[in-house]
């Protein structure tokens, strides 16, 4: 079984990333590589993490014309990662193309679709012309993602209950916006604590700064894992 906690390795250099990775094991946590590290350091370190046996989530949130996304997903598949993602806002045709790019092998990466970023609240959505609530937009985009062949969605833990009612447990719910104690003092808006997120049924918890920015990241991870295991 894949570890429930995925650590967001938002570092800008390989040395910092490996300093953390060298202290954890593939049984303990999954690892997420996002735009900052990938832009700074490229694909080679990603392949190294895969080689070391980690479940690697390549979080590049593709959002482009279907042909471009299909080819990008095909390249991501060749890195051997466990999960990739696209923005559901790219639409049905783009999500379907992403799936085609991943191929049909049983060990292909899982395809998840970002619904509405956990950093966006109602005011932010209104400012870009979205009149509906985050919850109803997430529902709509999750339905689109599921019918287009995605294996799951990236959403806030606040929306997991609603999505489980609609889709059941099989359709994956990957949740960033996780904050110990359920309080945020940064850009994440639709948040939940680790234990609450597990209780509502999140499949995977993506956690970055509460771990990577703490004085002792591995200790911070262990504390979170203990909280999570208490709910399983
Ligand atoms: O530091 P923090 O815990 O906020 O990190 C969350 C991570 O999850 C970041 O790397 C961010 O890019 C990513 N993410 C997110 N919201 C999404 C998808 C991914 O915050 N919808």
Features:
single chain, 232 residues, TIM Barrel, 8-stranded parallel β-barrel, 11 helices, binds cytidine-5'-monophosphate
**Biggest sheet record:** 8 strands, parallel, barrel
Query: How many DSSP-defined strands?
Result: 8
CATH architecture annotation: Alpha-Beta Barrel
Order of helices and strands: EHEHHEHEHEHHEHEHEHH
CATH class (first level) name: Alpha Beta
Question: Any idea of the CATH topology?
Answer: TIM Barrel
Q: Per the principal axes of the C-alpha atoms, what is the gross shape?
A: globular
Percent strand: 15-25%
Number of helices: 11
How would you describe the overall organization of this protein?
The chain has a single domain, classed as TIM Barrel (Alpha-Beta Barrel), CATH 3.20.20.70. It is α/β, with parallel strands linked by helices. It is globular. It has an 8-stranded parallel β-barrel, surrounded by 8 helices. 42% of the residues lie in helices and 16% in strands. Strand 6, helix 8 and strand 7 form a beta-alpha-beta unit.
